[in-house]
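Reviewers of the previous submission asked for a worked example of the structure-prediction workflow described in the proposal, so we include one complete record here. The input consisted solely of the amino acid sequence. No template or homolog information was supplied to the procedure at any stage.
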Amino acid sequence: MSTSPMVLEPAVAVAPAGRRGRGTLLVLAAMLLVALNLRVSITSVGSLLTEVREGLHLSGLMAGVVTTMPTIAFAVFGAFTPVLVRRFAAPRVLVGAMVALVAGQALRVATDSAAVFVVTGALALSGIAIGNVLMPMLVKQNFPERTGLITGAYSVSMSIGATVGAATAVPIAHAFGSWRAGLGVWAILALAAIPLWLPAALRRSTVVAVTRSKAAARVRPEVTRLGWAMAIFFGAQSLSGYAAMGWLPTLFRDAGYSPENAGVLLAVLSVVGVPMGLIMPSLSARLKNLHGLILALSGMMMLSYLGMIFAPHAGAYLWVVVLSIGQSSFPLALTVLGLRARTAEGTVALSAFAQSIGYLFAALGPLLVGYFYGLTGGWTVPMLFLVGMALLQAVAGLAIAAPRFIEDEPALTRNP
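From that input alone, the workflow returned the following structure tokens.
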């Protein structure tokens, strides 16, 4: 089975060195533009949720569905991505995902129905979920010798998209006098990604990325220790990330910070994460063994959560910076998805399984933190819960730290 680059024509054609260089840059630009779209439409909804609730008369339950949908969609739709790439080449799957993202974003701002808003939102999220799973495979195919660097680049692109969506959705809505503009504008960004992938998607000779061979069918992470360790690691760090984004402003407001300063603290969490998203994948790709790095990151998360129990006001900025560094286990996890597979099919299978199970697990984070907070009226129990999740992350991380490959794991074969 070939794992040579086959996403965009310049990446596969035999060409002079200068043309190959331009082709590589085109592939990278196309991937980064897709990555830019993988969070922007989600964070923009969060910023405008109050306006959306008022405009569509959403009940509290429906608003809860809207905020929980991303992690559920990532789990459900991400699980089907390996099936798609066994039938269609990766560029075609990605173009379909971007079309779904464009259509979902455009349709959800054209309705006055809460139910239609939710359904079309799910359509948009299906495109994002497929893109989430495809990105590690595309890195493996096109940049096998630069996995860490390229993973860092697209991770940073995702972070930039998330930050831009959160920061500009409200001003755009105010400028145009409607929350619909603040959400609908991002369909244009998704639309811009499609032309870069269309030439490869329309080519008859485009090779299906994951072949229908028996070898491809044998890649079954769900029956391997490595697959489950990867899923638990991905899930535990995602759970902590979503819980922090959802509840840290409330924690700091309870500690005496104004709403504005609590928001600044959350912004610091995001800003520090941008350079870490570039550094961590490169560092993890260069290390032969990740035991020390995983333990250090998990330990920093534990330290931060404990600090928020004992000194939530005096040490707030320190704890946020420490937590942001610890949460760079997310780009590390994205890198490891490519490092723990020999082939493109192994990468997409491991990526789909880890992200599907992981995001399903992560959806519990904000809910459980909120439950413990409501039950106890304070932050000690919620933060101890997150300390426990960081410990679980460390244990699972030790199982994926040493070099090994999903294709070599026992119990991968299926009877023909």
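The radius of gyration is 21 Å. We consider this example representative of the routine output the project will generate in years two and three.
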